[in-house]
Structures are given as structure tokens and as C-alpha cells.
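Ticket #4471: structure output looks truncated?

Reporter: J.K.
Steps to reproduce: submitted the chain below (338 residues) through the standard prediction queue, then opened the result file.
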Amino acid sequence: MAINILVTGCTGFLGQNFVDLKHIQYLASNLDAKLICLARKAPRARCESPHLTYFLVPEPASMSIEQYRELIEKYKIEAIVHMAALVGEGKGHWEDYVKVNVKWTLSLVKAFVTANVYHHVFIYISTVGVHGTIPRELPANEETPYAPDNYYHTSKALAEKALIKMAIGKELPLLILRPTIMYGKYDKGFLWKVLRLSRRFLLPVSSDLKVHLLDVETAVSVIDTLLLKPPKSSIFIVADREPVKLRDLLSFLSDRIPGMRFVSVPDKFMQITESLMAPLKRYANITLLCRSWYYDVSKLKSILNVRLNDTFNGIRKYTWWYAGHVKRHKRSRVRNGL
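Returned output as attached by the reporter:
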């Protein structure tokens, strides 16, 4: 079947991997898909393909429902993958997060459901952060109560609740993905920052702290699965097969990326560190290094039958990327033996 897919956030971390040339070719061969990427500006490494069109708008979040409806009908959009968001802490005022993460999302889905097109699926990329930086229960699952603890998480939770309400009684499959923190090519987030810190300072790491990451290629694969055969409206937490100890992960990477320094410390030390750092603006980033966070991915595996990665095998594919992008002065080189 031929299908036109509107993609937002194509210049972000997940988006750049989604509009990678190999992936576009995969979608073209399996779905006869054409991607229309909505962006403020074209990415630096712009992918050239007859199956990809960039629709550039200075302020996509400011477009009205009517403008989006016209765009959807003009390109005969049958599926939307909404990845764009104002991400993280300290990126703006509360009103900015509401405008981008809530109002824009609702305008887009309202325009889609009222447009005169076939409605294949609407995929919304949310975050596990709607359960809080550290969930109240471990492992957290799709039914774990909302507990957002910053502007980003709160705005995503508000958008989810509104979308769930809108989905009631409608035939449109509305699917919400809650990915955990991702790693891979183009990463400039959690893992990249931790690696940079470990090259600048002796990084203290709790001996027992567990983290649950996600290979960005798995995230792309899950979206593909939903596009190929969308289930009924639902929510899925997306993460690697199982959590890993952060200490073991850094040890694995230190054998491949030179210059990393870290030391195992008792949990009590990290608890004290967290309490001392609590007043700082980037508290969530600190908390991720002080307490364990992991998730139940059984629903994803049982319903979508997606093959989930072992984190160490996933990370191994990207050591060349991290080695070249966590440098401080000299360019890092990946050690032999990979």
C-alpha cells in the first residue's frame, strides 16, 4: 500500500535516525511510503530521496488547526509520527512547554481527524518521564500513575491525557510511545553527557545503580511496526530488553573509549550527593545518576512482538560515534578489538 507520512521533529535525535536514507529506503520498499518532514529548517546533513520532502515552516507550533488541515489534505497525509517537542529542563518558561508539547500536539491531531483523508494512524512520541524522573514503582509499567516532576514531563503528561480523551469513540488508531532515555548515533543526551563527565572528572558511580536505556534503532523499529500494522489505540513503554548496572556499562565503554575515569561508591554516598544537589536547576540529570530507574516492557513484547536489544550489544554499534563526540581536546579513537 502507498502511504504519505507526516513527520515532525525530523532534526532531533530520534528524528534524524528516522529520516536516515537507509530507513527511508526501507519504508519505501515495505510501505511504498513517502515522508513529508515538517521542520523549521532543513538538517545539516540533509537526506536526498524522492521519498522525502521537507516542508519548512518558521514556527510549526504556531500554525492553526486550519493551516494543518490544509497541509494534510494537500499532501494526502494518512499517518502522522509526532516526535517534535521542547525537551528537557530549563529550555523555556512553562508557557513555552505548553505551547509546543500540548497545544501543538492537539492542533495537529484535531486537524488530522477532521481532514478529508484516510486516517491510518497517529503516533505520538511521549516519554517515560510522565511517571517521574524516578518512577514511584520499579519496574514501572504503562499503568504506573502519572508523577511528572518538571515542566517537560508535566507537559507531556497533559498532552497524553488530552489525546487519550480524544481517542475515545474514534476509529483513528492513536498510539502513544513512552521511550526511555535513548542512545545511538546523534546522541547528545544522558549517555553522551555521562561519558564527557567521566573524561573530565573522576565520576562517582553507585555500585548497584541500574539504568534502563533504549537503542534508538529499536525506537525506529517500533514506529515501523506501528506504521505497518497499527493496533488499536494504546500506550507502550519502549526500552531495551532489561536494565543494566551503570557501573558495568561504563566499564564496558572504558575498554573501548580511552580517557574515561569513574569510581564505584556506596549507595549512601550518592544519596547524600542527590540531597546536596537538589536545589540545582538540572536536578533531574543528577537524580538519574543517584537512583535506579527501569521499566516493564512485557506489553511491548507481547503485543508488537518487537525484538529488543541487549544494551551492551546495542552500545557496541555506536562506540565509534561516542569516541568521536565525547572528546575534550584531542580526537578520541575507538580501541581495536570491536
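Triage note (M.O.): checked the attachment and the full C-alpha cell line is present. DSSP finds 13 helices and 13 strands in the chain.
Status: closed, working as intended.
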